[in-house]
Amino acid sequence: MKKLLLYLATFSLATVVSIPTQYVSAKQNDDSITHIDGNVQFPPTRWRLVRHTFRVHIPKNSKPVSQLSISVPPTVSWSNNLKDINVADDNNQKINTQISVSGKTILLTFPEPVAPNTKLEIDIKNVKQPTLGNGPVYSFSEKVVGSDVEIPIGVAWFRMY
Fold first, then answer.
1. 95, containing H or E segment
2. Domain for residue 132, yes or no?
3. Which residue in 40, 61, 108, 158 has the most C-beta neighbors within 10 A?
4. Peptide bond preceding 59: is omega within 30 degrees of 0, i.e. cis?
5. Is residue 15 part of a domain?
6. Which residues 6+ apart lie within 8 Å of 110 measured at CB?
7. pTM to 2 decimals?
8. CA angle, 60 as apex, 57 and 62 as ends, to 5°?
């Protein structure tokens, strides 16, 4: 029995030591395409009324962003109160944003374009979501300075716990 525990401990230690440190390191900031860095729901349960938070990364090799468009999934609704949407940078400084809503699309227009090498945090409060079924999937697109083309930048999916 002691030999079995010793072999198990040795195997566990060898496994932990062999995990490369690359899994722990952060992603390089060399990209040229804005992307969704992550999303969080608070509280992280099946509550009906929650807050959805999105992290959008504008890499240092990209163009400044003048507009973000968020397509809200048909399975969720929110208060449509523009004060329920907050946009801040990674230093938690509020970003000057003009917010408009058209149906299930939230349009975030930046009077001063958001510079490259910025991480945005977008909070949408008072989101009413289904308590059963698939989790909501938001779609994001952007417009960069000097272009009127809407560029898709990714999706954010919330799992139902």
1. none
2. yes
3. 108
4. no
5. no
6. 65, 66, 67, 68, 95, 96, 97, 98
7. 0.77
8. 80
